[in-house]
């Protein structure tokens, strides 16, 4: 989640990159990387059976040129990664078809969003998570078709509401109670925010929660699943089929196992991350798009039948970026697999020492944050902030800044300047989501009019742990409660 200013190693032009200047390999801008000015096969090396596979792959990685940032067909959106077709966007990740969006993670087809995550077709929203088709929505999560509202949880078709949970097709409600339009506005004008937040938090705990955010799906277990079939232990799965132990599988991902960020007509992928766009039969790969019948490859595009290769484009029958004939390739990969099995390497994902990023440069920091004990560095930042009148994050104590676009957004929506940096704001939102872990539990509903005597006997897998205070209902009891 870090961006760096550096120069392209080929054309020497100033660029934005996800790779810091201390990386050992050359980094190219997109124009140079996709040009014929260099050949990834020129870095090819013979496989050495006296060395381990991963040590040879690391040697190759330290030499092969890498793409500075994945940012395609965008306008005025240099500080974006794994993104395309964005306009006037800044610091957004894994997002496409957006305009005027700032500090967001996985947003699609949206406009004028700030500090939002997992949102699609939204406009003028702030601090929202897992919201769809909504307008001018602030501080809300798990909402659809809502507008001009704040502090909503699990609402649908709601507008002009404040601090509501589980409402459907309502307007002018505050803390789940109806108001006239005049009384609603008067409450807003005289709002005691601290008192309101306390009442809202109490309401959130009292209101039941559906065991999982699963809709229009069949035989699925996990959370945040839409239009899926037979997906087990899947989290954030959209339009996918037969995926298991998967995070962020979408747009016709099929028959994938142990994967992270896989989709766009991709099939038969195992133990891989960010392997997408018509990829097929790939194992142990990282950021490989339109790649087929390949293993242990990194940052490859439009390639097939490759093993242990990096930054290959439109290549076939390659091992460690070295070209082979079809017959020689088959002979070599059989020998290499046996060698890897002997060294206890085959069947395992890349070891952590092969990552080109420090821990705090990766998404792992968002889900498993490590606390820094560098008190001296924190004090130096505090001194610099005081001297230059710059803000310092109240959470991580790092310096950050406000850009003009976000200051305009805050002013237009009467939002106070945030006191914590973008990374900590994103971390806070993600921490409000349940973990990607499942517990076997029984429905907690005891309502006498829900067609059961005493407590409902329905059981399910849920991301709500037994230690959490929320009332967790099965699908049937939840629907009867809110409709």
Structural description of this entry:
The protein is α/β, with parallel strands linked by helices. Among the domains are: 115-206, no CATH class; 216-354; 375-432, no CATH class. It is 20% helix and 31% strand. Strands 18, 19, 20, 21, 22, 23, 24, 25, 26, 27 and 28 form an 11-stranded mixed beta sheet that branches. Strands 6-8-9-10-11-12-13-14-15-16 form a 10-stranded mixed beta sheet. A hairpin with a 2-residue loop joins strand 15 (171-174) and strand 16. The radius of gyration is 25 Å and the shape is globular. Residues 373-379 have low confidence and may be disordered.
Q: How is the topology of this model organized?
A:
Blueprint: E1 4-7, E2 14-17, E3 27-28, H1 30-33, H2 53-61, E4 66-67, E5 71-72, E6 80-81, E7 83-84, E8 90-93, E9 102-108, E10 117-120, E11 126-132, E12 135-144, E13 147-153, E14 159-165, E15 171-174, E16 177-178, H3 181-189, H4 193-206, E17 208-210, E18 214-215, E19 222-226, E20 232-238, E21 244-250, E22 257-263, E23 267-276, E24 280-283, E25 286-295, E26 301-307, E27 316-319, E28 322-323, H5 326-342, H6 364-367, H7 375-388, H8 404-412, H9 422-432, E29 439-442, E30 459-462, E31 471-473, H10 475-482
Parallel strand pairs: 3-4, 5-7, 6-8, 8-9, 9-10, 10-11, 11-12, 12-13, 13-14, 14-15, 17-31, 18-19, 19-20, 20-21, 21-22, 22-23, 23-24, 23-25, 24-25, 25-26, 26-27
Antiparallel strand pairs: 1-2, 15-16, 27-28, 29-30
